[in-house]
Design goal:
135 residues; 4-stranded antiparallel beta sheet; 21% helix
C-alpha cells in the first residue's frame, strides 16, 4: 500500500512540474524575445493521438519542438491545448493558415500580448513596458 501511495505522490509531483515547464531552444516560452512566432503540429509519439509542436520565431536553423526542462518533446492532446498554453505564456492567436500542399497541416501565427503599465504620476496616461520589447 505504501508503494502505491509513493508512486501516486511521484506522479502528482511530476504533473505539477510538467504544467509549468515549457521551453523552446532551452528558453522558457514566456521569455522568448520575439513579437511574432509561428507554430504547427507534428505527429506525436508512435501509436498515439497526441501531437508535438514546432515553433519558429526567426531563430534560424532547425525548427525546435516545445520541450520540458529535460529537453524531451512535450505531447499535447490537440492544437487547442497548445493555444491555451501559449495564451498563458503571453501570446495570442492572430491568424490561422492552411497549407495547400498538405491539407492536414495547420500553421498558427502568434504574437506577444502587449503588457500595459499604468503610471499615475503621468496624468492617467498608459505607456508600454519597455522591458517587454527589448531588442
Amino acid at each position: 500500500m505504501k508503494s502505491k501511495l509513493f508512486l501516486l505522490a511521484l506522479f502528482i509531483l511530476g504533473s505539477i512540474s510538467f504544467a509549468n515547464a515549457q521551453f523552446v531552444n532551452e528558453k522558457p516560452i514566456s521569455e522568448l524575445d520575439a513579437d511574432y512566432l509561428m507554430i504547427w503540429s507534428d505527429s506525436g509519439p508512435i501509436l498515439s493521438s497526441k501531437i508535438t509542436v514546432r515553433v519558429d520565431y526567426g531563430q534560424g536553423g532547425r525548427t525546435p519542438q516545445i520541450t520540458d526542462e529535460r529537453r524531451r518533446a512535450i505531447s499535447f492532446n490537440g492544437m487547442i491545448a497548445v493555444l491555451n498554453m501559449m495564451s498563458r505564456n503571453g501570446f495570442e492567436l492572430v491568424h490561422v493558415v492552411r497549407d495547400s500542399k498538405d491539407a492536414n497541416e495547420y500553421f498558427y501565427l502568434k504574437r506577444k500580448q502587449s503588457r500595459i503599465v499604468y503610471d499615475p504620476a503621468n496624468d492617467n496616461t498608459v505607456d508600454y513596458d519597455s522591458n517587454v520589447h527589448s531588442r
